[in-house]
Design brief:
The structure is a single chain. With about 45 residues, the chain is an alpha+beta fold. Helix content is about 55%, strand content about 25%. It has one domain. The protein has two helices and two strands; from the N terminus they run ααββ. Helix 1 packs antiparallel against helix 2.
Length: about 45
């Protein structure tokens, strides 16, 4: 999970929002929700 969060963070930093959204959407498809927080991104099962 940490690798995917890091990849998404790098994509967002590079302004590659399509990739960042794709990572979030694929995780959502398996009931994982990402939460962007001041200290970093967290996740939870929904």
């Amino acid at each position: 999970m940490n690798v995917l969060i890091a990849l998404r963070a790098e994509a967002r930093k590079d302004k590659n929002f399509a990739l960042a959204d794709a990572i979030r959407d694929q995780l959502g498809a398996i009931n994982i929700e990402l939460e962007d927080r001041p200290g970093g991104t967290g996740w939870k099962r929904v």
